[in-house]
Amino acid sequence: MLRMISTPIGFFLLLATLRTGNPSPTDKSKDSPSDYPARIERLDPAAEAILPQHPTWHRVAAGFTWVEGPVWIHSGYLMFADIPSNSIRKIDHDEKVSIWLQPSGYRGQEPYGGKEPGSNGMTLDRLGRLTVAGHAARNIMRFESMNPDEKVTILADSYQGKKLNSPNDLVYGPDGSLYFTDPPYGLRTQSDEDPQKELGFNGVYRVPNAVQQKAGAEPKRESLQLLIRDLPRPNGIALSPDSNWLYVSNSEPKKWMRYPVNPDGSLGSGKVFVDATDDQRRGSPDGMKVDTQGNLYASGPGGIWIISSEGKHLATILTEKSTSNVAWGGKDGSVLYATTTDSVLSIQLNVKGVRP
Length: 356
Fold this sequence. Notes:
five-stranded antiparallel beta sheet; mainly beta; hydrolase activity; Neuraminidase; globular
């Protein structure tokens, strides 16, 4: 398919930037907030209703190693995980970054010995409680308040007596159940042969009635439901706005899957929604969210893929580096935040997203 890349500001702005000596958008030393034109692959006319005529990236924060799990908090600020530093961080109204929780994942006394000791994806339940994929902690945890020193509730940590691999991303259903993915990326070797890996597969699970679990209560381990076990690397996860479809990204090989959600919360047979195995650009299917119209915004090769509810690739918002996840924020939910290797970026779009 022909890809048309738009650079709205154009050559003369780039020339002016070079003459003034200001760092370019790809300058790794630029850690302070900055704005620069967004490059877009426009693949379908339907993308024009989604994307502004002159889209702009805003670099909210930078200088990290591998950031993930952005989530917009209702009172008006963003949180994200900085996995290698084993921390969850907060970006306040003035774009000041502070550590909210450290350690956020692995809590052992000995050095972790792996690349990703921290937590990963985050979301909110309908009561506004922060729920975190523990990743190297090998659990799902819910914070009963936005004070990280107060009570934490473990929603899941094992399946049939065996430790989970490393929960990666998660989403709540309208009935209060919680769906999450469990690849091995939070283990020390990130492989299926890791000596600490107890399960013989990488699954997608459902915690029934997770919202109703009492604060501080033990997880209902016997109730955890294994929904999918045949994906090599399940990663990002999202529900359609009507909750009739569950999307799961598979990082290796590069595919997005879609499953019908049954009335009892179980899943029907899945099908490949979009296949990106032939795209050799940097990045793989990872975190994703949906807008109110049902379009999917998925981290993938080259940046953020915008995919219609029919599975048509409408556009790609190109990013400088590998993109791990996205989240909707701002006053009305029309600002898309993205975590891209060492930075947190934002872009204003013409649509509103579905926020937890």
